[in-house]
Amino acid sequence: MKELFATYFESLANSVGLTTPALTLFLSLLAGYPLALIHRHYIYGKDAKLQHLYFILTGLMLGYLNYGIKIAHNVFTVIFVYLTFIILPGSLISLAIAFVFTMSYLLIGYFYTSTNQYDITWTMPHCILTLRLIGTAFDLYDGRQPTEKMSGDTKETALVVKPTFLELMGHCFFPSSFLIGPQFPMKRYLNFVSGKFSSNWNGSKPQPLDCIHPAMKRFFLGVVYCIVFHILQIFVSNEYLLSAEFTELSIFRRLWLLGVWGRYTLYKYITCWLFAEGACILFGVAYNGLDGEGKPRWDGCENVKLSVFENATEFGHYIHSFNTNTNNWVAKYVYKRLKFLGNRYISQGAVLFFLAVWHGLHSGYYVCFLMEFIVMYMEKDVSNFFKGKN
């Protein structure tokens, strides 16, 4: 029976142009919506431990469906880092251990699992987990520092009290963000569980805000991007770019098709992020205060700014609109922490090197981020030249 189901699932994946791991991941992202509805109607506002357990069990269930017993790598990493929080809570040594251990574990995982293909293995959620644990270690360290020395964004996320094991596990394995992101700090998770993102109170029970419409909006945008991606893939596929037919085209035609390919390739990431963001909104964890009209904002877990991305006229627009949660993370926990170097270019170079290492061991990552540094440096000079600035 198990073999029959596996064969059927593989056939279904092939029929929609996906590998079996990719289809499993895709369905896991969609599973975030019914899981959010269950939490919204039956668990929201109840005891925090119950909510943590729900997030842990559902997150691990999705992890097991995708990666089987190898999900133990992720669990072990969380346990190890938590032990450092217990033994050396909020210390610089604890922060250093968490940073070195999680990054080393991730790189070793890349070394043993990477191939020449696009790999969907346990290292994918592990790279998300790595940033989440390092960020929590930083927040715990910040919470032990004098308030007057903290910046505004540091005060918002600093942890004065060490998180419990259930809190850390619930944050790390939150079902709609564990697999591919988005990143959000422990403080946001704790505020969400405690009911601080509620609109009103019914006796002693907080009520969830009305977030179904914004959640469905991001979901349907994800559907649109998914459809566009698969349509364009028919005309400009990876295989076509490597074919003899493509090499016979004129240089202008090839450049144009490469531009189309490079653009729509990003749509698969945008699709996944929109689905994950929509589920985070439906859970309620994406609440981000009120706008100027007093209406709730739901961009707390936004990972792509579509209006900026689709209207980009500069390379910098792509950086500011694509994978924004990761960009914000490295800006806060890496770039600003290197302020003591006194040179922003060295800090930027260190950030891009960190991102390259975090992505993996393939040389393409390092070439990509080196080119980003060069292009951004050149773009700034060219922009200043045309604006008449020195």
TrEMBL record:
<protein>
    <recommendedName>
        <fullName>Lysophospholipid acyltransferase 5</fullName>
        <ecNumber>2.3.1.23</ecNumber>
        <ecNumber>2.3.1.n6</ecNumber>
    </recommendedName>
</protein>
<feature type="transmembrane region" description="Helical">
    <location>
        <begin position="345"/>
        <end position="378"/>
    </location>
</feature>
<dbReference type="InterPro" id="IPR004299">
    <property type="entry name" value="MBOAT_fam"/>
</dbReference>
<keyword id="KW-0594">Phospholipid biosynthesis</keyword>
<feature type="transmembrane region" description="Helical">
    <location>
        <begin position="50"/>
        <end position="69"/>
    </location>
</feature>
<feature type="transmembrane region" description="Helical">
    <location>
        <begin position="75"/>
        <end position="108"/>
    </location>
</feature>
<keyword id="KW-1133">Transmembrane helix</keyword>
<keyword id="KW-0812">Transmembrane</keyword>
<keyword id="KW-1208">Phospholipid metabolism</keyword>
<keyword id="KW-0808">Transferase</keyword>
<dbReference type="Pfam" id="PF03062">
    <property type="entry name" value="MBOAT"/>
</dbReference>
<dbReference type="GO" id="GO:0047184">
    <property type="term" value="F:1-acylglycerophosphocholine O-acyltransferase activity"/>
</dbReference>
<dbReference type="GO" id="GO:0071617">
    <property type="term" value="F:lysophospholipid acyltransferase activity"/>
</dbReference>
<comment type="similarity">
    <text>Belongs to the membrane-bound acyltransferase family.</text>
</comment>
<keyword id="KW-0472">Membrane</keyword>
<keyword id="KW-0012">Acyltransferase</keyword>
<dbReference type="GO" id="GO:0005783">
    <property type="term" value="C:endoplasmic reticulum"/>
</dbReference>
<comment type="pathway">
    <text>Phospholipid metabolism.</text>
</comment>
<feature type="transmembrane region" description="Helical">
    <location>
        <begin position="266"/>
        <end position="287"/>
    </location>
</feature>
<comment type="pathway">
    <text>Lipid metabolism; phospholipid metabolism.</text>
</comment>
<dbReference type="InterPro" id="IPR049941">
    <property type="entry name" value="LPLAT_7/PORCN-like"/>
</dbReference>
<dbReference type="GO" id="GO:0030258">
    <property type="term" value="P:lipid modification"/>
</dbReference>
<keyword id="KW-0256">Endoplasmic reticulum</keyword>
<dbReference type="GO" id="GO:0016020">
    <property type="term" value="C:membrane"/>
</dbReference>
<feature type="transmembrane region" description="Helical">
    <location>
        <begin position="219"/>
        <end position="236"/>
    </location>
</feature>
<keyword id="KW-0443">Lipid metabolism</keyword>
<keyword id="KW-0444">Lipid biosynthesis</keyword>
<feature type="transmembrane region" description="Helical">
    <location>
        <begin position="20"/>
        <end position="38"/>
    </location>
</feature>
<dbReference type="GO" id="GO:0006656">
    <property type="term" value="P:phosphatidylcholine biosynthetic process"/>
</dbReference>
